[in-house]
Amino acid sequence: MSTVSKAIDLLSWFSTERAEIGLAEFQRLTSRDKATTYRYLRSLEASGLLEQNPVTRTYRMGPAVLRFAHVREATVPRRAGVRMVLPQLADATGELAHASILESYTLVPLSDHASTRYSARVVLSEPELPLHATGSGLAALAFGEPSLLKATHRKLKRYTNNTATNPKELDAILQIVRATGFGVADQAYEEGVYGIGVPLFDSSNTVAGAVAVASVATRINDETIAIIKSELVAASRQITHSWGGEIPEALDQLWSNTLNSLSSDSLTLRESIA
Amino acid sequence: MSTVSKAIDLLSWFSTERAEIGLAEFQRLTSRDKATTYRYLRSLEASGLLEQNPVTRTYRMGPAVLRFAHVREATVPRRAGVRMVLPQLADATGELAHASILESYTLVPLSDHASTRYSARVVLSEPELPLHATGSGLAALAFGEPSLLKATHRKLKRYTNNTATNPKELDAILQIVRATGFGVADQAYEEGVYGIGVPLFDSSNTVAGAVAVASVATRINDETIAIIKSELVAASRQITHSWGGEIPEALDQLWSNTLNSLSSDSLTLRESIA
DNA sequence: CCAAAGCGTTTCATTATTTGAACCGATGTT
DNA sequence: AACATCGGTTCAAATAATGAAACGCTTTGG
User: Fold this and answer.
1) Which nucleotides of strand C lie within 7 A of protein CB?
2) Which residues contact B35 (CB under 8 A, 6 or more apart)?
3) What is the pLDDT of residues A230-244, one digit of tens each?
4) Does A11 contact B68 at a Cβ distance shorter than 8 Å?
5) A34: Cβ under 7 Å from strand C?
6) Is A243–B63 a contact, with Cβ atoms under 8 angstroms apart?
7) Is B10 near chain A, with CB under 8 Å?
8) Which entry of A93, B21, B42, B173 is 20 to 30 Å from A21 by CA?
9) Per DSSP, which regions of B53-180 are E strands?
10) Strand-strand pairing, A183-186 and A193-201
11) Rounded average pLDDT per 10-residue block, chain B, 274 residues
């Protein structure tokens, strides 16, 4: 590992909870030599990535990160982080992968990618996704701000027989989404379309969008669901990372558990076939 | 100079104009060895400060900077102090209010707020504000560190016919700014935009940023200028206070005098109308 | 169509920088 | 008054950074 990397890794110890860190605390956190750590800190300070509180002598994030973040925001649109991921998601699942961004109570499609595996495909032409009737929407509702749910309660339009149109029904569904980590819309928006979605987070660490796979309902079975879920988790982790966010600890754990049990399930499935 | 600093300095070559930089271009920019530069870039990429475009092989700002900026804002909440003030400033003037922070020789936009009074509005899309051609910049130059002015002298880019492009010209303008307490850019950056700015101070009691009103030039007259100036002074006092700084005695006095004469002016104006 | 130039990347002997145990002085703490 | 902890410094030994050269690949130009 290069000196540069080791030094920069010090930055990762800062968080909103641990905003200022002194030399001694760094030494304890990193269990690395004090003099070395000290020189790293001074280098980072010289570059503006850190700054030192002149009275407490502790270090905190420096002003340079704002400049860099500004350049990033101005030059790398959210779409770019999504485009890197959707083709893989679509190809691995054989279905339509799409990502959307949460803009004040509505989910606006950002980009999508259709697999060429089957000739029967789902196409996405909607200008905005209903929160209560799509996999993406349910994921956003379940893990987003409570105000989002509140605003949605007032406009539960019916699209199909499977659409949840009253608040109680919706809340029951969201309980399941929160327990599983996946928003599932089984033909709740459009007949014949089965959607599974997961939330996306940005640097504010709140839900900033969703990524989902929309499948032709007749192709859905336990095995395809397992593949879709595992690919969705990977996609969400990647996109969230590129947006400067982090998957909340609890959700990440939930997903890990689900994926483990899924892989063991598909193992028994394969065994039972054999 | 430490290896760490040399590596991190590569980040400063990125800007909104130069969003992606390849190895060869870096080599030319830094006139440093190719292999060394290459290893720096890889280290920065490994830390997430950079990311590589997989097709063009060029590098751009990485997602980590967003996370770091979020921590910085949580640690040193500059945005919060500004957001409290900008709506009032925009609404009272009917124009675009914006604030920026000074980060090593550049003014980085922090937040802005547009009034809804008129349909013709100034929009702020600039990634960074030139110091010699904007109200904010002139305010920062006039009341900031001399080294800031020195650095600016070397890059006086022309934007319009009104841009001051030689040091003497700029110094003359700054004399006026220092005498009045207001940085005025009459279509010096963009045709049709009239900007007035004042400096902001933080706990170090040096210029830490600027707050400004950008108006549609045709709407500008003595009365609107009087309103803008008085609102700007109030805004700067509030933001500076929330940043833990103080307006320098001399400047505060200057503003008080100006506001008094302005209100008497507008009094005589109203009297002359009556 | 081949040659040349440009690109990112790897190699390896030389060299310079990093490393860390020990130390220092200041500031609390028992 | 002894002790612990803090940020910061020193210096010989060790290790990681360095850069010329070469490599394979793509693009460009004649």
Assistant:
1) 6-11, 17-23
2) none
3) 999 999 999 999 999
4) yes
5) yes
6) yes
7) no
8) B42
9) 59-61, 96-103, 106-114
10) antiparallel
11) 94 92 94 93 95 93 96 94 95 96 92 92 86 98 96 94 96 97 97 97 94 97 96 98 95 93 59 49
**CB neighbours (10 Å) of residue B206?**
15
Closest by Cα among A195, A46, A80, A4 to B3 = A4
Give me the CA A56–C1' C28 separation in Å, rounded. 14
How far apart are alpha carbons B4 and B151 in whole angstroms? 25
The set of residues, in sequence order, having a beta carbon less than 8 Å from that of A91 and lying 6+ positions away, is A115, A117
Q: What is the CA radius of gyration of chain B?
A: 21
Checking B77-81 for CB contacts under 8 A at 24+ apart, the result is: B78/B110, B78/B209, B78/B243, B79/B110, B79/B111, B80/B242, B81/B238, B81/B239, B81/B242, B81/B243
Is the distance from CB of A234 to CB of A97 less than 8 angstroms? no
Residue A200 touches partner B, C-beta closer than 8 Å: no
CB contact at 8 A, A41 and A57? no
Q: What is the spatial distance, in angstroms and rounded to an integer, between the CA atom of B189 and the C1' atom of D19?
A: 44
Q: Which bases of chain D are under 7 A from a protein CB atom?
A: 5-11, 16-22
Alpha helices by DSSP H, chain A: 3-9, 23-30, 34-46, 64-75, 78-83, 86-93, 135-143, 146-153, 167-180, 222-242, 249-273
Whole-angstrom distance, CA of residue B11 vs CA of residue B5? 10
B225 to chain A nearest CA, in Å? 31
Q: How far apart are CA B231 and CA B224, in angstroms?
A: 11
Angle between helices B64-75 and A64-75 (to 10 degrees): 130
Tokens representing residue B61 in the block: 């700002």
CB A89 within 8 Å of CB A98: no
B11 interaction partners in chain A (CB closer than 8 Å): 64, 68
Query: CB contact, 8 Å: A53 with chain B?
Result: no
Distance (Å) from the C-alpha of residue A11 to the closest C-alpha of chain B?
8
Q: What is the pLDDT of residues B160-219, one digit of tens each?
A: 999 999 999 999 999 999 999 999 999 999 999 999 999 999 988 999 999 999 999 999
Nucleotide nearest to B32 (CA to C1'): D19
Residue written as token pair 């997903």: A255
The H-assigned helical ranges of B106-248 are 135-143, 146-153, 167-180, 222-242
List pLDDT tens digits, range A115-162: 999 998 899 988 899 999 999 999 999 999 999 999 999 989 999 999
Query: A227 with A234: CB under 8 angstroms?
Result: no
Name the phi and psi angles at B108, rounded to 5: -100, 125
